[in-house]
Every structure is written in structure tokens, then in C-alpha cells.
Design a protein that fits this description.
Blueprint lengths: L12 E2 L20 H17 L8 H13 L12 E5 L6 E4 L3 E5 H6 L3 H16 L2 H8 L3 E2 L2 H12 L3 H8 L14 H18 L5 H20 L17 H11 L8 H8 L3 E2 L7 E3 L2 E4 L4 E4 L5 E4 L4 E5 L2 E7 L6 H13 L10 E6 L2 E12 L2 E13 L2 E10 L7 H4 L3 E2 L2 H5 L4 E7 L6 H5 L8 H8 L13 E7 L2
Parallel strand pairs: 2-4
Antiparallel strand pairs: 1-5, 3-4, 6-18, 7-8, 8-9, 9-17, 10-11, 11-12, 12-16, 13-14, 14-15, 15-16, 18-19
Amino acid sequence: MRRKSLALISAAVLPIALSGCMGGDIPSASTPITQSEAAQGAEFHPQLLQEFGGTYTGPQSAYVESVGKNIAVQSGLGNARSSFTVSLLNSSVNNAFAVPGGYIYSTRQLVALMNNEAELAGVLGHEVGHVAARHSQRRQSRSQRNSILGAAGAILSGVLLGDSQIGKSLSDGFLQGSQLLTLRFSRSQEIQADELGIEYLTKAGYDPNAMSTVLASLASQNALDARLQGRNNASVPEWASTHPDPASRVRTAAAKAAGGVGTLNRDTFLTRIDGLIYGDDPKQGVIEGNQFLHPELRLAFTAPQGFYMVNGTRAVSINGQSGKAQMSTGPYSGNLDSYVRSVFTALGGDKQQLAPSSVRRTTVNGLPTAVGTARVNNGNSSVDVVVYAYEFSNSKAFHFMTISQAGQSGTFTPMFNSMRRISQQEAAAVVPRRIDVVTVKRGDTIQSLANRMAYTSAKVERFRVLNALTSTDQLQAGQKVKVVVRAR
């Protein structure tokens, strides 16, 4: 949740279909980038950077850009490295995507999960493959507009509201934020992009098996995240990642690359990503267990027991079996009652009117607070929508929006009562985690190195997934591995 982009309540819509996955006539995969495609990409590139936390400013950016351009030229889309724009995004989700015109993106979190340069080239090559095959245009020909939050709305409406229009309208405004961007391609399109990525790897002299190994790492991370967050299965929520079901593609990619050989550039890669921020950037707020802290906005709150959070650039979503919530902000004129009603209006959208039955005033941890509730009928059932707004200054307010089955909004009461200001001292104590690449010494074990991980739980599991180590793998002296540490 970034400070500069918090003023929007309604979901943003981009009138293009993004080639995200890991997420008339249409040109073939061998047709160079057209002028119209280049213009389209150039138009939306600044918006996408803003939506995904901006460009990461560390020294790792130049390295990712170089590898991405080297692999992209293998596609034939452009005849020079300058034909492509490759960006490393300051985002804490595992994500990569592309848009027409040669614009390729990967988040720093996904790069941190990789273990060699060939894997980086494979992921970026996969995204280039989507562009080369014009997958986004093919999807766009079926649906002319793609909302950043379309799939997020589908999740909420499916779980709590059914498929009614009111469910879709409520939920579309509910889980907003750049890190919820999604566009799901068909299985055949994903496999085609994998195959094109493998082709580009081979042309560039990389080991083509890297495509299957990075997919395996992503599947392992998905499974670990699901367990740590208390989800019932290891599939990634569609609104949280543009990499649908990587586990199902591992074997296919491995079979396609069977017998292929090439370079991995493992040590070079690990050396170049050393120091990369891992997890949340404090400038965007951080999730620590079931607590969210934002040192710049000087606020903190605690999610209900059994819920997990996803930190987006515009909002923090709070997700559980008994309801969904979002913490965000909007334009504030100094009147909390009007603020609450404006949030309801935005949730209702253009097709329906939504207003609280009443707005009551209270105080939470010294913060002036206003609360509005609306019960919404949805066929044979009803849901409660609650907006809890807090005044932090004459010009700044924050709010929770929650949705739950009728009569169950009390699930969120502890969270509502946990919102508070944090002191300067507490804010200064929030520091980022970073990747620290270390060389294994004689006597080091997975357990001993995992003990350095800057977490209070699942240290060994996190260490194994981060380094693509199975339960039977052992470390060798001289081997480079990644650990996650606190950086001062």
C-alpha cells in the first residue's frame, strides 16, 4: 500500500488485455512489433509502473533488464535490444507479465525465488512468448475491456454473493490495488508461451530445463504460502497472481526441454541479486504475522484470527472463510460521515445505489471514527457491508470495507478496534528484509543456515523453497545459497 496512490476508491480499468500469466487479423509469433503495438505499450507503461509499486531502484534492475533484452531479441519481435523495455518492479508478489509493444515486467519477489540466470531468462522469455503469439490481442478480441480487478470481483461474488449483478458490483470495488491484477490465459496459451520461452532459451545458449525448474519453484512457493496462510489448498487465488497452476505445467515444460543443454550462470545470478529487498517494502507498509504496519502513514492494525492479508499498492486485502475486507483511503474533506457515504456510493457503482442505513460516530484508540452498515439482499440470502472510517488528520482518513454473510460482521470487530497510530520509534523499527547470498562452509547445514532466516516460523521450509532444495537435498561446502535477513 503506497502513500502516493491511495486516493482512488473505485477500481482502475485498463482498456487493454495484459499478457500476464506467471499469468479481425492477429499477427503470428514471427511478426515484428508493429507501430500500433509499440504505441499501445508506451501509453500504458507508466500506468503499469505506478500500479505495481514503481521500478525497483536497486542495482539488480540493470541486470534483469540486460538478461530480459538478451532473451527478447531471440523472438524476432525486434531486431535490437532497444526494441524492448524490461522493468523490475518493486512488488512483493510473485508475478511477471507483458504488454504489446515489447514491454516486459517481473517483480523483484519472483526474481528472488529464482536460482540461476537461465530461470530468469526463461520467465522473461515466457512473457515475450505471450507477446509474440499475440495472446493478449486474442483475448481482447473476445472481451474488449479487461479490468485489473475483474477476477477479484469474481472471487468475492462466487464465494459470498453468487453471480448476481449486485455481487459483482460490490466485489469489483472491493479488492482493488495493482497487485491484484490478473488475466488468465487458456492452458494452451500458457503451454505455447512456455514452449516459446524454451525456444528462446535454447537460441540464447541457456539450459532449456530452467523453464521447468522455475515453474517447480513457483509451485512449491504457492503450496508453502497456502499452508502458512491457512488456506485449504495450494492453488494461488486468481486475484493474487497471474501465474495460474504452475504445477500442472512443470512436466510439460520438462518434457519439451528433455535432452537440452546450456548454461545456467547460477553463481553470476546469485551474486547480482544479492541485497534485493524480499517481501514487503516498508515504504508500502509491511505485513508481520497478522499485523499490518505502515511506517510512513504511521498506522497499524491487526487482522482477525484465521485471516490472511495481501498488501497491494492501493489497499490491503484481508481474506478469510467468513468474510473479506479491505483497508484503504480516499479523498477526505474533514467530514467523516460524508466520507463513509462516499465509500458506499463508490461500492455501488453506476448500476445501483448503495447507502448505509445510518452512520454512527465513535472513537477508536483516540481516533475519531464513523461507522456505516448496509444489508444487501442477494437472492435467497443477504450480506452485510460495513465501512469503518478513521480520521488521522483534517485532510487524511482511512477506512475498512468488509463484506460477510448477514449477521456475521462481528468477525471483524477486533480488527476495527485495532486501528491505531504508531509512534516514530515504532515506525523507525520497521526495516526491510533482504536477500543475503552466502557461501556454504564446512559444517553448515540446512538447519543452521535456515536459523538465520528473518522469520519466526517455518524457517527450514522457507529456506528450502527459496533455494529449490528438496527434503532429501544436502548442502555442499562452496555452494552459494540465499537467506533472508533484516537489513539495517
